[in-house]
Amino acid sequence: MPFSSVRSDNGLLWAAMRPARFARPIHAILIALLVLGAWGCSTKESRILGNERLLRGPDGLGTTTRESLIPDRDTYVSPGAANFGPTLLIGSQGGFDSRAFFRVPSWAIPDTTLPSFAVTAIFLEVPFDTFVTTPLNLLVDLATTATAYDTLASFPGPAPDQTLGTVDAGVVLPFRVPIATSVFTQIKGWAQNPSSLPGLVLYAAGGSGITGLQAGKAVLKIRYDHLVSGATVSDSTSTAIPLDFTLHTPGTPAPTGTDTTLVLGGLYEWSVPLHFAAAAVASGSTVNEATLRLRVVPGSPTYPTSRTVDLEVRRIRNAWLESAGSVAPLGADSTVLVARTQLAITGPADSVVTVTLPQSLLRAWTAAGGINEGLLLTLKNGNILPEILLLSRESTSPIELRVSITTPPPGRF
Amino acid sequence: MTSRLPIALLRRGPKRVSLAALAALAAALAFAALTVGPSAALAASVYSVGGLGEPQLDESARIRALGGAGVAEFGVDLFSQVNPASTAGVRHLLLQGTIVPAYRRVSGPGGSSESASETEVPSLRAVVLLPGRFVLGAAYAIGTDAQFHVDRADTAGTASALRIEGTGGIQFIRITASREFGPSLRFGIDHEIVAGYYREEWTRDFADPDLATSRDTLESRYERLGRWRLGVQGSVRGWTVGGVLETKRRLPLTSIGRAAGSTVEQGGTNLIMPSGYAVGASTPVFSRWRVAAQYRRANWDRSSLASDLVDLRPMQRVSFGVERLGRKAEETGSWRGRLPIRVGISVLQWPDLLPVAGASTIAGGTAGVKEWTLSLGTGIVTQDKGGNIDFSLEAGSRGNRDELGVSERFVRAAFTLQVGDDSWK
Q: Rounded to the nearest 5°, which phi and psi values hold at A216?
């Protein structure tokens, strides 16, 4: 049955006017659209057969090469400077000797005009660092120093002058050095002119071993009595001593430059400078890996359970030789380049310590005008933990810097 | 206009159905373009991995169904992308968009074969009649599609898994002006800005967790510069002859490679858009039949692009189409008789001469890509001259497996939605 066309109100002309028949082609188109649309997900052939046409010249599609660099310079150096860390080490052990120095910027003095004022006790009190086991019979003296508090001094630092008190560090808790009440007269003078007291020092006066105190927590307390309404009242003042540091003897034995073992951390706070002669990274290449692999000497001291340390890596800016004696001349960055946190040497399982370096480091070393004087490894606050012994470049399994570089992909044209 | 149907039925039946169907079709087109297109537009022809990319036919479904022979087409609601003069007959504001879902089957070495699909939007166009019988238009069209997606294992050096996603190609933004001089002469001019780029994202993953993923971005960018396309059409005794001339344009080309912490930029080369031309004719042959033919050529050659990976030759497309016109509105007959039927064939010679299978550069020999397409189409025309919906179904093959290692067969459908200002008045 034929049907003619009509013009609807909006002028649209349709080929058929019977609704049921008219809808069929539209429906067919709609279905076709949806079916065709459902095609649009597979690119399988491009993944397989497209590879046949991925032709980009004789050099291929870029190549990833891995290279292991061995240091051309390595040694270990002691800081040769004051330690401002969180632990004040005091005492001696073998050839190691350490002292803590303090400076009192201002004093808290009791009101001596109080009725029946009398000083009953004076002492220096410092909380222990509980991570350090204090031995018995370690006699520690508190003394004034003969010369001014000097943070740039090297061991032994300002010499002790007037001894103010002595304590056996292993038998007191907290660490407390009694000071004779007669010193109060001097203290009043120091309070009026703080610079008249050059400084204070805690040092081992007898016995053996090392104690650790919490830095920045020292307090000098003055206890006194006075009358209030006819009754004797005890009171006290506390003078906080926020300025302190530790000096210790230079590290021994000194490195020779040909040692097969490098010492990292420990009482002497050894740091390990390394230098690798890295090749320039070709323009456009990608650095996929720059991993420092530190091989630990079998038998290296292990850490106590649950104790960890942070291994910090800094860039060295100054030229150096394996005969370097201390950290300062290296000109290491104050900013940490990368840190391997919560490191612990617990046994043979920790025979290799890896540190992932920023991939930008290789470019910075080898770019035009770039400086490659190597890296300095230090253990943050590692002086209260055993040292880590590493195999040096003179050993059969030296430290290595593993570098992987991928050459740039070829261009389309 | 007369109707044999009662007015009430007209108001309640066909009108509602047609509007709903049109809306649904438009929504389906939008759905396909927005949801299917982006996810599927990751890969064009398998040959688009190299060279300029897969040449696209930027015509509407109507002209695609004629094999792409559009240089001599014109009308109040009809124009081609190839000839700016074809817009001169437009008397309304017309908006036109085309989407092309495609299904491909790729045959590889050893008899292996796989299939894939994608969706393209090859062209969008708007034209409007201005005072003085000038017609102004703007269009976006795709010249070549260089989208591809490759996953492969790479064993060069440290073993890795390589993923490459290529996008871009040559695109055109055309500003068109045309005018009709009498009933038989039309002139048009395009200012065609050559846009686009070639971009590849290379991602290389390693099984070893110590190795960070490589991410490289390669871009080949050329300056967006314009060239001119001049078109003319003349009609005599039912014959219409059209011609287009395209000018040459040098596009400074810059290659940029980016990796983490490194950017390498290289210039000093050019992509030269070649001159070209298209000629063709159309004529009625019987009362309801007409034929159209076209030859189009772009003079790509070795000097168009300095590369060791692709050589170039002239791109040529020969198109031939036959159309059986639908019965007019006032004529009686079934709805099938009102549908036009279009059949076309085209042969396309890609400009790319790609390295033969097994060769890594053109020094090892090249082979061209020839593409055959057979097309069939129809459409629904609105009476107000303001809009139509056209459809074409195309099937063909391209490439030679013996020479290039792989060959393709494809089926694609093109849907064009064209609306005019009368459609919503």
A: 75, 5
**Structural domains of chain B, with CATH:** 41-424 (2.40.160.60)
Query: Looking at the partner chain, which of A11, A289, A408 has a beta carbon nearest the beta carbon of B210?
Result: A289
| Single-letter code of the amino acid located at B274 | P
Beta-carbon separation of B101 and A5 below 8 A:
no
Q: Return the residue of B nearest to A18 by Cα.
A: B14
Q: Using alpha carbons only, give the angle A155, A161, A166 rounded to the nearest 5 degrees.
A: 90
Contact B352, B50 (CB under 8 A): yes
Show the CA angle centred on residue B287, arms to residues B284 and B290, nearest 5°: 25
Dig out the tokens for A42 from the structure.
């597979």
Q: Is B32 helix (H, G, I), strand (E, B) or coil?
A: helix
User: Which residues 217-256 in chain A show a CB within 8 A of chain B?
Assistant: none
> Could you tell me the CA-to-CA distances from A45 to B51, B161, B167, B397, B417 in Å, in that order?
18, 17, 17, 16, 31
Report pLDDT digits (tens) over A138-175.
Answer: 999 999 999 998 888 889 999 999 999 999 988 777 89
Q: Do B46 and A363 touch (CB under 8 A)?
A: no
Q: pLDDT category, B329, cuts 50, 70, 90?
A: low
Q: Which residue of A has its CA nearest to B205?
A: A288
If you ran DSSP here, which 8-state letter would residue A297 be given?
P
Across chain B, mean pLDDT equals 87
Distance CA A198, CA A191 (A): 13
Ranges of each domain in chain A: 1-41, 64-79+251-406, 87-248
Tokens 């076209």 correspond to what residue? B294
ipTM of the predicted structure? 0.80
How many Cβ atoms are within 10 Å of A95's Cβ, its own excluded? 12
CB half-sphere exposure, A316, CA atoms < 13 A: 25
**Directed axis angle between helix B14-31 and helix A19-38, to 10°?**
0
The structural architecture, per CATH, of the domain A64-79+251-406 is: Sandwich (2.60)
**Contacting residues of A for B77, CB less than 8 Å apart:** none
Read off the amino acid at residue B322.
V
C-beta of residue B206 within 8 angstroms of C-beta of residue B160: yes
Inter-CA distances, B188 with A276, A287, B137, Å: 69, 55, 10
Residue with tokens 């042959």: B285
SS3 at position B26:
helix
Say what the pLDDT of residue B44 is. Answer: 82
| Of B55, B309, B129, B412, residue with least CA distance to A57 | B309
First CA to last CA distance, chain B? 18
**A117 and chain B in contact, CB less than 8 A:** no
What are the distances in angstroms from CA A206 to CA A90, A157, B318?
11, 19, 106
